[in-house]
């Protein structure tokens, strides 16, 4: 009889712990965070006038990508998981010679996500070409960094050719992030 009673108590404890886990999951808050940031790139010739410079020139720009917004702010210290649902970028707001080309790379927290070689900037901007990051391992690294730090730094750098005194554009990064947090 004593063994049956002890087994009954053990069964109640296991069921009770399972019920607590289930109740905690009911309190989970799921958010979709849409990140849309632009990294500005501006190349200009320092000396104005009759001087023309078309020599290759390096450039770099950065932008912070954050999951902190009105919806998630109260839950930032209670995040259970972060998942990148989509990650893409494109060239927008182009100004410069139509023949300008770039060889450039996109990094997030110094992790290389993508590289373009001899990209004609005007063509990419005019066509609205969207570059998608689909490597799951890279997306998981970005998600882990967002979970631990709530933000990441995106960097776009490279070299421009045929830019001849003036080239500016923006790299528009678009990310859809699923965040699950629990108030407990």
Keywords summarizing the entry:
alpha+beta; 184 residues; Jelly Rolls; single chain; four-stranded antiparallel sheet; 25% helix
Textual characterization of the structure:
This protein is of the alpha+beta class and 184 residues long. It contains 3 helices and 8 strands, in the order αβββββαβαββ. Helices cover 25% and strands 49% of the residues. It has helices spanning 2-26, 121-127, 136-149, and strands at residues 29-44, 57-66, 79-95, 101-108, 111-120, 130-132, 151-161, 166-181. The strands form 2 sheets. Strands 1-8-3-6 form a 4-stranded antiparallel β-sheet. The chain has a 4-stranded antiparallel β-sheet with strand order 2-7-4-5. It has a single domain (29-181), classed as Jelly Rolls (Sandwich). It is elongated and about 95 Å long.
- Helical fraction equals 25-40%
**Radius of gyration, taken over Cα atoms and rounded to an integer in Å:** 24 Å
The CATH architecture assignment turns out to be Sandwich
Principal-axis shape: elongated
Which residues form runs of ≥5 with pLDDT under 50? 19-23
Q: What class would the helix/strand composition place it in? A: alpha+beta
Multimeric state: single chain
What is the count of structural domains? 1
Mean pLDDT: 88
Total E-strand runs: 8
Number of helices: 3
Query: How much beta, percentage-wise?
Result: over 45%
Tell me the major beta sheet: 4 strands, antiparallel
| Alpha-carbon distance between the two ends | 39 Å
| Pattern of helices and strands | HEEEEEHEHEE
Q: What top-tier CATH class fits best?
A: Mainly Beta
